[in-house]
Specification:
Distance between the termini: 27 Å
Number of strands: 0
Mean pLDDT: 89
Radius of gyration: 17 Å
Number of helices: 5
Order of helices and strands: HHHHH
Structural class: mainly alpha
Shape: elongated
Number of domains: 1
Helix content: over 70%
Low-confidence stretches: none
Largest sheet: none
Length: 115
C-alpha cells in the first residue's frame, strides 16, 4: 500500500501503473494493494498534491515560488522543487499510510483469531 502511495506522489503521473508493476516485481510486493494505494492521486486530489509538493520543495531548497504566467518557463524553473517535494511529501504520506494499513491488518487478524 505504502509503495503505491509513494509512487502516486511522484511527478511521473502517466507512468504510475508501470512504475508500480516494476516495483512490485522487483520487491515482490502485492500489485493489487500497491495499485489501490496509487488511487489517492485522482485528479481533484492531485492538484492539492502538486501544490503541496511545490511548496515543500521550494521551502527545502530555499527558493521562491514565482508564477510569472509563462507555463513553459514555470516547468523548467520549478521541476527540481517538484521532485524534491514529491520525495518528501510522498515519503511522509506513505509512512502514515503504511502505519494505518498495519493497524488495519492487525485489527482484522485479531477479529479472525477471536472467531
Amino acid at each position: 500500500m505504502a509503495f503505491g502511495v509513494f509512487i502516486a506522489f511522484s511527478p511521473l503521473y502517466g507512468l504510475q501503473s508501470v512504475l508500480i508493476a516494476l516495483g512490485c516485481a522487483l520487491f515482490r510486493l502485492n500489485f493489487a494493494v500497491a495499485f489501490l494505494g496509487a488511487q489517492i492521486s485522482i485528479p481533484p486530489v492531485y492538484t492539492l498534491v502538486v501544490a503541496s509538493e511545490l511548496v515543500m520543495g521550494a521551502w527545502l531548497l530555499d527558493r521562491e515560488l514565482s508564477m510569472n504566467g509563462d507555463w513553459l518557463s514555470l516547468g523548467r524553473e520549478h521541476m527540481l522543487s517538484w521532485v524534491v517535494g514529491s520525495v518528501v511529501v510522498g515519503g511522509a504520506i506513505a509512512l502514515i499510510c503504511a502505519f494505518l494499513w498495519y493497524v488495519l491488518l492487525i485489527r482484522k487478524q485479531k477479529k479472525v483469531s477471536a472467531l
